[in-house]
Amino acid sequence: MDTELEVVVIGAGQAGLSTAYHLRRHGLDPESDFVVLDHAPGPGGAWQFRWPSLTLQTVNGVHDLPGMPFAETLGPGVDAVRAADAVPHYYGLYEKRFDLPVHRPVHVSMVGDRAERLAVETSEGTFLARGLVNATGTWERPFVPSVPGAERFAGRQLHTRDYRTAQEFEDEHVIVVGGGISAVQLLDEISCVTSTTWVTRREPQFREKPFTPDVGRDAVAIVEDRVRRGLPPGSVVSVTGLPVTPAIRAARERGVLHRLPMFSEITETGVRWADGSEQTADVILWCTGFRSSLDHLAPLRLRGAGGGITMTGRLATQVAADPRVHLVGYGPSASTVGANRAGRAAARELTQFLNR
Ligand SMILES: Cc1cc2nc3c(=O)[nH]c(=O)nc-3n(C[C@H](O)[C@H](O)[C@H](O)COP(=O)(O)OP(=O)(O)OC[C@H]3O[C@@H](n4cnc5c(N)ncnc54)[C@H](O)[C@@H]3O)c2cc1C
Asked: Of 96, 210, 282, 336, which has the fewest CB atoms closer than 10 Å, so is most exposed?
């Protein structure tokens, strides 16, 4: 049986929960007007899958969801709490507190058009909605650049997403590829137990000064401009730079942050640069980022000639080519604070659009 309703939200991470909270405030009934569908086993969005050593002290900071402070859900010794425990705990309580209609595990395989409605095909049947808020994040689309010879490598290749603990690499040589915050954090951890090589495409830009709201706003503005022009969102760290935390300063003093440019080839035993120099390795760890999980939206043909989806609306959450569809946690809103704001803007604009 198909279920007809006003709005389907896909994803119950920070972006989906913020949207759901604001849809309620705009008068949508969680019993009959909207659902939040998520295929993960429990609350927490992508946070439930993050590696054990990522704690509330080492993350950039998880912004409060609207109406309920994160700190309220934490006990003493907060800084050391694993992000993969604390954030899911918070989101779970949040869903209950606001009685949000989260259905899980429900996998959305495809969204198409049917008789003026959006047909959301799921593992639990089809939902026919007048509006859609997509909040599926990036965690499920790890990006690894294509490098000649990658299939020849006899060692192990893994992505940030697969990382659990540095101890599993003891006595192995690890090449860490990537210039983002995760790359530097994992390089720091791994270099405490074994030898490492650090490779980045561009010269890393370290930021000695604190991360001010202005720096954040500038980064968001650049990404927002790109998606309004229909370009793929691009990386925020290229704008914000890498924060020099005490751990990073210590790693620098240990001589670990000596960076090499990107290699041109992968061999059976390691990597080779264009000048012929080589490094043998047992492991290549790709900390090369993520792309947005949007494959299930392909039938809607949202992508334009620029290779991205042209976005519009107050915070660029609305798809220009299909105003029934909002993307939150996408591009400029791919942070916990951005996801919060995007959820609010999307809920308001979508309910206004549907009530026209
Ligand atoms: C290692 C790492 C550390 C980070 N640290 C910080 C930080 O400190 N501060 C910060 O602000 N941001 C941080 N970010 C970015 C931040 O995690 C995100 O911007 C934000 O939490 C993402 O929220 P989201 O709701 O967009 O996505 P997610 O949390 O990824 O939630 C998406 C949800 O959609 C569901 N889903 C996906 N596809 C489907 C489907 N087809 N059907 C059904 N359900 C689906 C998933 O199960 C998931 O629950 C970090 C990112 C990474 C990778």
From this structure: 210
Cβ of 223 less than 6 Å from ligand 1 = no
Output the six-digit token pair for 282: 């047992």
Which atom of ligand 1 has the smallest separation from the CA of 17? 25
| Model pLDDT for residues 210-224, shown as the tens digit of each residue | 777 787 888 899 999
pLDDT for res 356 = 74
Kindly state if the Cβ of 90 falls inside 6 Å of ligand 1. no
Task: Establish if 185 belongs to a structural domain.
Answer: yes
Query: Which pTM value belongs to this model?
Result: 0.95
Q: What pLDDT digit, counting tens, does each position of 103-117 carry?
A: 999 999 999 999 899
Probe residue for ligand 1, chosen from 8, 90, 136, 162 as the CB with the greatest number of ligand atoms within 8 Å: 136
Among 224, 191, 17, residue whose Cα is nearest residue 104? 17
Q: Cis link prior to 233 (omega < 30° from 0)?
A: no
Q: Are strands 325-327 and 125-134 parallel, antiparallel or unpaired?
A: parallel
User: Which of 8, 21, 59, 242 has most ligand 1 atoms within 8 Å of its beta carbon, as the pocket-test mutant?
Assistant: 59
Query: Residue 164 belongs to a domain with what CATH number?
Result: 3.50.50.60
- Residue 248 lies in domain: 150-205+241-286
- Considering only CA atoms, which of 141, 150, 116 is closest in space to residue 130? 116
Domain membership flag for residue 211: no
61 CB near ligand 1 (under 6 Å): yes
If asked whether residues 133 and 174 sit together in one domain, one would say: no
216 domain residue, yes or no: no
